[in-house]
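FAQ

Q: What does a record look like?
A: Structure on top, sequence underneath. For example:
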């Protein structure tokens, strides 16, 4: 029997409730509807006081270290950030600055963002994709962008965005399955060598 997929979402939202966290949770649920998985949500707004002032990973408290380890050990990542001044939040970047640069290699990453208007929709391709390319992660084909108007009570309401989220997950599933089954094969090759 195959173990459940370790599915981790990182929300760059600074407050609770957060539209970015709501979008991340929506995407987690869509993936969980398709595959057996263990879900975990990292809310950076809740970690902010513990991240402030840290320059080296060794300076971070255990609560932050556990969240970093969860991201590094995930089989699949979902990342969602609000857009601030045309990019992901500084806290989002600060958190990922502590991730080991080889930990995300070949890991499927579903990119998502929220913003005040449609003007920021390209943040996924112009900011998030390059960041995860540095990590040599496999950014999934479709990203999901939602504006404030697409939510009601921190739940997605816009049918077009809901459909895009569904399509993003459907298009991601073959790559997620490939990654899920490739890990044991890689481990067997290493053991045989």
């Amino acid at each position: 029997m195959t173990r459940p997929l370790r599915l981790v979402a990182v929300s760059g939202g600074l407050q609770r409730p957060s539209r970015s966290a709501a979008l991340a949770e929506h995407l987690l649920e869509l993936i969980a509807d398709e595959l057996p998985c263990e879900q975990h949500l990292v809310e950076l707004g809740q970690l902010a006081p513990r991240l402030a002032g840290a320059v080296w990973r060794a300076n971070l408290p255990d609560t932050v270290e556990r969240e970093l380890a969860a991201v590094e050990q995930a089989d699949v990542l979902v990342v969602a950030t609000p857009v601030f001044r045309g990019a992901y939040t500084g806290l989002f970047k600060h958190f990922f600055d502590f991730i080991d640069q080889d930990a995300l290699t070949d890991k499927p990453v579903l990119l998502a963002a929220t913003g005040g208007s449609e003007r920021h929709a390209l943040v996924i391709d112009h900011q998030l994709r390059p960041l995860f390319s540095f990590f040599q992660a496999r950014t999934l084909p479709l990203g999901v962008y939602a504006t404030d108007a697409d939510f009601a009570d921190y739940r997605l309401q816009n049918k077009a965005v809901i459909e895009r989220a569904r399509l993003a997950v459907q298009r991601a599933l073959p790559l997620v399955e490939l990654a899920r089954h490739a890990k044991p094969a890689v481990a067997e090759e290493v053991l045989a060598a």
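Q: Is there anything notable about this one?
A: The chain has six helices and eight strands.
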